[in-house]
Amino acid sequence: MTELQAAFPAAAVHRRALQLLGSDFSYAAREHDGSWLVLVHFGQSMQGAFGFTRDVAVLYSPHMDLQPRYFKGLPTRLLSLPSDREAEDHLFLISSIDLIAARKLDKWSEDSEYTAIALPRIEDERVVATQIRESIQMRLATRNLYDERDPVTGKNFFGRKQLLAQLVEELRQGNVCGVFGLRKTGKTSVITELGKRFAGNNTESRIFILLDLESLPSDPNSIMARLTKNIRDLFLDELRSRGLRTHELQNVGDDVEIGQLQRALQTSLKHCEERDTQVVLALDEVESLVGDAEEIRKGRRPFVTEILGVIRALVQQNSNFSVIFSGITSSLIETGYLYGRENPLFSWAKSYYIPPMTKAEISDLTREVGKRMYLNWSPESLDRMYEVSDGNVFIQRTLAAEIVRQLDDGGDRNITVSHVDRGLKIWVRESSQTIVEMLASARRHYPDEVELLELFFDDRGTFDYFASGDPSGLVRLIKLALLNELSDGRLQPGSMTRLLREVGAI
């Protein structure tokens, strides 16, 4: 610490201020650019107030003019920490001689996944201690981390432990499976997190290739060419980076036939097997490939079964290769006859549906994300949230985001049942159009099931007749969480169905 304080005298003041907060420096190291990376271990009162579970990084910068690239490189700095050290990755404290560092960091933090706060440049440690605490509180309170639109992974991913464990095991055994659910149920987050957990620390010997099929053209006649090109390009990138065989794939042109791509992949996969390398191809947003129920009925995409046949052949011929699908429609696995041909994946690949999160999981998500915003949810408020959401992550996160928006700036950060009820009224009104669009999506891909759901409310006798005669529709309604089956066998509407009823959509 002596060398740090010699290079940056302000560090001595900061350390005394932190000690007044029951905290202290726990690590310090000089970086390649002359900066110092320091870790602060906050005491129990600060940990409890702000939800810190790890140390917080402090960067002492020697640069007169703080640049955006310095801010963007903050998460990378944590990679230099020893293996026995960890730091929060959503908050950084910065000591800079740049006179407008605070203004810059505030601006750059507005649209970033993490926050950087400028440390005070004054001599009175008591004032510094107060300002550190107030700055952290103010910055955390201005963020709405529940309002997350992109897939989440790592520390932002909560729950789904059983599902992820099952999927990792399926992939490691070389099986083919699909993960399905309605819109905004977290499918892409699950697949992205699955890729990280599957590879683990063995990224050289376990390759996870994720392809978002939503980028496919809307014209069915152009889908095959675009898909084969995208698969070729992704395989080339991953195999090249590991020094694996790509000669045959490089000779595959943009207008390649699926059979030629199959032969090239076969050669590359065999070489991967010789190198003890396992490969997983993840195809997300499969409805963009398969189409909706109307397109399946009219037989507009006969090439789909050819693609599925190639996938099955490659998996059967290569024990080190597996495929996972994700999306709304489960027809590519659960429909026996697809586009005029027998479905190669029917009764061979396994279907999984995204379940609602358990009460413990969804409450943990709400509470832990809230701590990063200086929020404290009462147990009663979390109970009320679960009554509304039933573990539906879209409902839980967007409702929580609305509750945060209704809080007074600088006001009480303790969330009560009254906050939930007030936010719920506004949220239902603001989200009604999104909820209706989610029903429209479900109707496109599961028309028979949605019709059966409507009978559940309009004609229970007819509902019971169809549900008992062909239970597959009822099974899907339960798996999609549109209906819940109680322990005594009774059925009740799921959280999304209740909201659809409330807005008059069903």
TrEMBL record:
Top-rank lineage group of the source organism: Bacteria
InterPro entries to which the protein is assigned, alphabetical: ATPase_dom, P-loop_NTPase
Assigned keywords, A-Z: ATP-binding, Nucleotide-binding
Any one Gene Ontology molecular-function term assigned to this protein's record: ATP binding
ATPase domain span: 157-393
Gene3D superfamilies according to UniProt: P-loop containing nucleotide triphosphate hydrolases (3.40.50.300)
Family matches, as PANTHER family: ATPASE DOMAIN-CONTAINING PROTEIN, DNA-BINDING PROTEIN-RELATED
Entry protein name: ATP-binding protein
Source organism of this protein record: Mycobacterium intracellulare
